[in-house]
Amino acid sequence: MIKGVEHIAIASFEPRKLAEWYAMQLNFMIILDTGTTLYLQAANGIILEFVHAETHADAPRVRDAGLRHIAFSVDDLDAARSELQGRGVQFADAPIELPGLRLHFFQDPEGNFLHLVERDIPLANETAANEKVGSR
Asked: Is 60 part of a structural domain of the chain?
């Protein structure tokens, strides 16, 4: 029935400005601009939609209920963080180190939570390996 995630929408009072930030800072490509909505694509094919917001929500924290962050896969967290910092992106205090992965949170200009994630085993590969073990 469901084939996968087609896109993820981000509502903004200035969708063009925010979409351009994602294009400039995070290397997303603008693939469709309808004049009111912009669609950007990451190198791995994931698509983000930037649409005009109609209301202003309270500022959520990273662990509040609901959709809370977008994680960007990187091969080298330190290099990616350094490049983004050179572009003016500010990161949370310190990277989080867990077995097999490292991540570091930051926010886009509108306060949406984002983070870089470096994994020893890509999540999709780890999930597939666990499914094989579970099916035995």
From this structure: no
Classify residue 9 as exposed, middle or buried by CB count within 10 Å of its CB (0-12, 13-18, 19+): middle
CA atoms of 44 and 76, how far apart (whole Å): 16
Q: In the chain, what is the greatest distance between 2 CA atoms, to the nearest angstrom?
A: 52
| pTM summary value | 0.85
Domain termination site, one of 29, 55, 81: 55
81-97 pLDDT tens trace: 999 999 999 998 899 99
Residues 41 and 98 in one domain: no
67 Ramachandran zone, left/alpha/beta (phi>0; psi -120 to 50) = beta
